[in-house]
Structure formats: C-alpha cells, structure tokens
Amino acid sequence: MSDLETARSQNNHARVPRKGKPVKHLKRKRRWRRRLIITAVVLLIMSVLLAGGAFGYIAYRSSQVHHIHVNGLTQTQSGQPENILLVGNNSRCALNGQQSVQFGSCAQVGGARSDVTMVIHLNPATHQAFLLSIPRDLFVPIANFSSTAAGRLDHAKIDASLNVSPDYLVQTVEQDLGIPINHFVELNFDTFQSVVQDLGGVHMYFPTEVKDSMAGLGVYSTGCVYLDGTQALALVRARHLYYLQNGVWQYDGLGDISRIRRDHEFLKVLGSAVRSQITNPLTANSIVGSVLPDLQVDQNFSFSEMASLAWAFHNVSVSSMPSATVPTVGEASYTYNGADFGDVVFPVQPADQQLIGQFLGTSGLPGSNISPGSFTLEVLNGTNTYNLGTTTSQALTNDGFNVTGVGNTQVVSSQQVETSIYYTPGHLAQAQRLMDSLSGTVIMGQKDLGNGADVTLVVGTQLGVNPPSAPSPTTPASTQGQTTTAPSTTGATTTTTSPFGPINPSQVFQSQVPLPWFDPRSCTDSSAAPPS
Predict the structure, then answer these.
(1) pTM of the model
(2) How does pLDDT run across 194-213, given as a tens digit for each residue?
(3) Which fold would CATH assign to domain 66-326?
(4) Which of 490, 375, 365, 376 is nearest to 439 (CA)?
C-alpha cells in the first residue's frame, strides 16, 4: 500500500486535526468547559441566593428589634467614638407568670427603673472599648422631674429618671455627667436569663457561700459552681448580699456599689462564655434570637449598625476591657425637700471629672479649655452656715472666676452636704470648668434659675475650692494637685490636703477596687481566701 493509501485508510478511523490532537480529546475538553461554565453559573446563582438570604436574615432580625423614639441623643459622624447607654430595666410588666412569682408582678412592683445603668465607649480608630457604670442611687438633678421645689431644680436618684421615659435618663446622663449619648439600648430580666440559658449556663468560682433573699440568691456550695439563667440573674441583681465567714453570716453592706463590682466580674465570665461558643452558628443564632425580641433601642440604631459594630470590635476581650464606676460617697437616710430618699450616693470631685475625661479620651479635665472669667457666675449659700456663700465666692474670685452675685437660697436638704451647679442651656462646658476648680460632693444639672447668670453655684458643706496656684516643688507627690481651700462649717477658710475637700477619703467608693475575698469570680481565679 502506498503512503497515500495508508493515510486515507487511517483517516477513516481518526482524523488528525490541527496540532495533531485527536477529535475525541477536543470533545472531552468542550464537555469540561461546559461543566465549568455550568458550575460557575450555579455558584453565582447560589452566591446571589446566599446573599439574598443574608439580607433576608438581616431584614428578619431587624424586624424583631423594638425601636423606640428617644429624644436628646447626640449625633455622631462615621468613624468617630460612640457612647452607648446600656440599661437593665427592672420593670415587672414584661414578665411571664412564673417570673412574676419570683420577682413580683407589675401590680406589686409598679414603674420602671434602671436597675443597671452603664455606658460603653467605643473608639473605632483604636478598636478600644471602656465600660463605665453609674450607680442607681446616684443623687442628681433631673430636669423637669417635678415642680415641688419652686425656683430649684429637683433632684432624685438617677434610676428614677427611666420611670418617666428613656429621654429623661439620656438627658440626665448628658447634662449631669457631661457624657454625650449616641445610642440607647435597654434589656429586661427575661432577656438576660435567656442569653445565659442559650449558652448552657455559666460557671463561677465561689470562695464561700452567699445569699440574698431579696434577689432570690442562694449559693450554698463553694468552688466552681454552675449557674443557670435564673441563678445568674439573682447574682447580678443582689444588692443585699450576705456571705459566710467562720460559720457566721456577714452582711456586705455596700449595696449597689458591691453589686456593680460583681456585675463587672460576671460580664467578664459571660463574655468568655460567649466568645467560646459564638463560632457555633446555631448557638449564635439562638443568642441573637433570645436578645432581639425583648431588645429596645433608639430609632436610629439599626440591626445592620449593631452587626457592623460587633464585627469592628469582635477582637475586644470583655475579660480585659477596662471597666470603672463613677466615684461616689454615701449618705444614709437622705432627706431632700421634705422627701426621704433613703440611702443615696453623691458624685465626688475631682475624681469624677478625672474619670469621665479618661472615659471620653479627652486631654485634660472636661471644660479645662474654658477661661474662668469668660462667663458669669452667681454663688448662693444653700446651708445654715453663716457667710459660707461669701467665703466661697472670694475663693472663686481668687481663681479668676467672674462672680456677679452672692446671696442665700432656701435650704432644702436636711444634711446640706451636696453642692449643686446649675447652668443655663449652652453652658455645659462653663459648668464643667467651674467643676474643675471644686472638690467634694458636687453635682451638676441644666437649669435657668432666672437670675441672669450663666452658671449658679449653690454651696453645700462638703465643698473645697482649689487654690489658683500650682503646688510647690516641695509638695509630696501623693498630694500634688489635691490641696484645697475649703470653707468649714463655721465659715472660716481652712486648708486641707484631702483630695475631696472635707470628705474622708476612706469613705469614698473608688472607681476601681479589687474584688473582696467573698465575691464570686472567674473559675480561673480561685485564689480568694477569707482573711486570717
């Protein structure tokens, strides 16, 4: 057979295409191409469906959030720090029958109070968070709270402002503490219990047995103890705690102050539990499903923004996040304007101003950039101490303040300890500048008293006015910046090295203190032991 015939014969079985590849190889390649295209299309469709599902999930979860209209919130720009007011509402009206038996019904315990009030500061630039607790018994001015004291701004415990509305609580924190609030978030009893239950409970180390009959708490075991949702709620609500020491039940006695310390410790334990389980989609979905239906947030706080913040700060460890409490000093059986408010706590200066400045991340004290002579100031004596207003105004004049009037005003407090700063709208920074020069139990609120002054100071007995000159180089380091000129109860001007004017520093509830040995803590910290 010739070469041509041989080629024709072979061509009857398989053609030799270009580049010498058989046709069957080309067909196989085309089939794979079609499969790849089909697969890509399917994946694209699935991606679209999944994306649609994600948006659908967000839309579904968004519909579960209860948005309420809150007035007075401070607007913030994208990327700027945010302050979120976190409130634990103790209202019984949202409880079911079983919970009402434990905590009381709406008819038995009326109203709503901020059982827990915290502000969390989030800084997107540094991805840092700071948690600040405000004691529920903090005695402060509440604007337009009532009209029982004509010509004076009325005062009450800060938790009572929520009983009026969230607006009142927001404006009280902003006006009295100088902390701008960007968002409002409120949870109730049931939500808290459900979150703990969805996590399968938590474990905490108990150095000794503890109980609080008013909160329903009773832990009669020591060591690492399991807590379900109900027991965890009882622990974080306990304000009348007894602990067992050498076979005798001892009373804690610090009420809400001790409760806040335990709450901070519990949040660390809860945060660790959440971080260890949040990678499980079912658990995460269950927690979200438990929280959202009973969550109340302001009208501008969308679920997508919550999710965005959660992602931006997902690396923040609750266990290592700094937390503090507004420094205070207690006053038992406090009577104001004829009403008995029971045990209250007062803000303490300059500790409060220093902590709030640190919390907000500002340089220097709030209001420190204001000149003391740039606004008008009236000084009124709010006590029965003779000439106290005059001696205080003289000290403030020496500090460079523009004192335009001095006088007396009605004494409305039986103990006469608190000093009140009232400022007209738009003069918060000026009031803070005055606060920078004072020591003692000083509170602040917005109110126009109609006397023409930008700021009015109503003087109490626990007050010190800081001298204008800086401490000398010979001043001990432990007292630098703490020397005050304080009017005594006799009206004479005295000098004291106490950082809180006439207040005994040992009586001040500091912003951060170690847990006492008897308080529960993380199971990884089992070093607590009773004092010998």
Answers:
(1) 0.79
(2) 888 888 899 999 999 999 99
(3) Aminopeptidase (3.40.630)
(4) 365
